[in-house]
């Protein structure tokens, strides 16, 4: 049976926009609570996605340790990233990739990202204790807005004078687009639903640090009630799109109805590639896909027309 889509997060949005089929395969069947979907059996992630997940945890752990006066050796970062990955996958899968060049490269790149993150202005101010009041937050904390559970917690919040700063760190950043600001401001709606944070929009400043093409790009947004309302609408529109996609599969959950990515680069890191028509090249499979979708749209149109006549 098709499941009603009720969850929104930046990763889900990215997947929806970059490849509808990837969204459906990865997320559409996991609409239960976080503890159930977080057992990693329900969602299939590529090795690079898992390394990103591990890197984020290592970043937060290193920061917390710094707060407690514990400094890490350079080797510790790579080791922790590897251990984090190991805990996410089956022993059989780990055995296969343990000594691979791919894994070594991914870990080495992740370590470079963490090192360069420590060199950004915000991180230097935290490490040098210029920013005194800060805390790390868990992305698993969500708030419910009507029928949608929204996972958009910042990674770090800090307070300078009377302003609360909400910072999200994206290890796989994408170029800024027309919705970037509203996506970021979703953090304020999250914070306003957190009992320990203020409810007034003007008390917040939103920051994102995105790793794009080897550099950390810092963006800053100032919320207003109007923008926060638009941000909520964006999320609702996304969930609506998610539901339309799932509905498109029909009662037989026919995945062939769901469009493929428009961009080959999305396929390169996709864990579903071996079983996807795009495995032999996106261009040729896209033409085939369009033909399938056109054929089915025609059948539905005919059925609909006949129902109206009779
Ligand atoms: S391989 Fe490409 S088209 Fe297929 S699901 Fe993955 S991203 Fe989408």
Structural overview:
It is built from twelve helices and eight strands. It is an alpha/beta fold. β6, α9 (180-192) and β7 form a beta-alpha-beta unit. The longest helix has 28 residues, at 282-309. It is globular, with a radius of gyration of 21 Å.
List all distinct small molecules, including ions and cofactors, that are bound in this structure. Answer: iron/sulfur cluster
Question: Which structural category fits the helices and strands?
Answer: alpha/beta
Distance between the termini: 29 Å
Percent helix: 40-55%
Q: Descriptors for this entry?
A:
310 residues, alpha/beta, Lambda Exonuclease, Chain A, 5-stranded mixed sheet, 3-stranded mixed sheet, 51% helix, binds iron/sulfur cluster
What's the SSE blueprint?
Elements: E1 7-9, H1 10-18, H2 20-27, H3 34-37, H4 47-67, H5 74-88, H6 91-97, H7 101-117, H8 121-127, E2 133-136, E3 143-145, E4 148-151, E5 156-160, E6 163-170, H9 180-192, E7 204-212, E8 215-221, H10 225-248, H11 264-268, H12 282-309
Parallel strand pairs: 1-4, 6-7
Antiparallel strand pairs: 2-5, 3-4, 5-6, 7-8
Helix pairs in contact: 1-2, 4-5, 4-7, 5-7, 9-10
The chain binds iron/sulfur cluster.
Residues 19, 21-22, 260-261, 266-267, 270, 272-273, 276, 278 line the site of iron/sulfur cluster.
